[in-house]
Amino acid sequence: DDVHGGKREVGEAHRASRIAQGLMPARSASRMFLALYLVALAAIFLMAPGATVYWDAFGYALQAINGDVGGLGLGRPVFVLTMHGIARAWLAAGGSPWHLEIVLRVACAMAASAAAPLTARLALDCGGNRRVAWMAGLAVALSPAMAHAGGQVLTDGPGVSLLILACVLGARATLGRRGSIASAVASGAVLGLAVGAREQTVVNVLTLLWFAWLAPRGLRWRVACAMAVGCLAAVALPLAFVFLTQPSYVDTVRSWLANMSRDRSAKTYGWSDLLVYLAWLLSLGPVVVIAGATTIALQIRRRKWRWPRLAAVAAPAMLQVAWMAT
To answer: For a designed S-S bond to 183, which of 131, 173, 198, 315 qualifies (C-beta 3.0 to 4.6 A apart)?
Structure first.
């Protein structure tokens, strides 16, 4: 059994290696990625509001100016500090402060648009062919929710792009070839940055652990440890910087936790709210939601995932969907 298991692992690693190297020519893949990026940008241009409409987007724009970290969750230091750096660079270059909010929205749109080609790359690395990669990329590029949020100064778009990049690097770390450990460290570090932009992505630690388990048996622990080191460093360093440079930071986190506790205790959550949430999910992309739910149901019924790496991505994602329902 061990011999056959080892052969299966080597065969899977070899197949994944061919996938990562490209089932399509490099030039063709590059054209696909560029096309998906431009489609995502166009979708944001057409569907996103022409001005800031969310209260937290106003808050992020203000934080980009003053550099203060705090507010939601742990303050999302990676996102706020990045926006602050862009604001300082724009103003230092002589840009008008009246145009700063537009500059920040463009920066977020450019970062959010990367999610579409990265999704296509992830589809290839998980075992899909060119058609699957196109469909996956277009599903993200043409998502009304992604386009709507991607054109605002919000963490949604950049956070998704970072998360998918972490998954791409994590999938490559399972191949058992040269550079696997470096890919593992990078995947953990990028996931840590995603957590620093949007705390909910911490659930995808499960994805990286799943990827580590899919690595060849002799590499599993080293890949897992490399991912953990990269992730912890990327999460801890921005928090340490903010803690040391902004004395009021801890108070803002404590205040947010207290307010959230009061808010949760003051509200009731019933079946009608759950139905509204499900209807909201469906409205984000009816075709994608129905196709995805059908595919997952069929795979569960057959008790066998066609692509193990896809399961590593999909299962934690579904956990997040269920978590949001609460």
So the answer is: 173
Query: Is the CB of residue 115 less than 8 Å from the CB of residue 146?
Result: yes
Q: Which class for 200: exposed (0-12), middle (13-18), buried (19 or more C-beta within 10 A)?
A: middle
Per-residue b or e along 118-149, where b marks 16 or more CB atoms closer than 10 Å to that residue's CB:
bbbbbbbbbbbebebbbebbbbbbbbeebbbb
Residue 82 CB contacts under 8 Å (≥ 6 apart), including other chains: 158
Which are the contacts of 247, defined by CB distance < 8 A and separation ≥ 6? none
Are the beta carbons of 115 and 277 closer than 8 angstroms? no
52: left (phi over 0), alpha (psi -120 to 50) or beta: beta
pLDDT tens per residue across span 218-228: 889 999 999 99
Q: How far is CA 142 from CA 113, 166, 169, 287, 314, in A?
A: 10, 22, 24, 11, 20
**How far apart, in whole angstroms, are the C-alpha atoms of residue 187 and residue 85?**
24
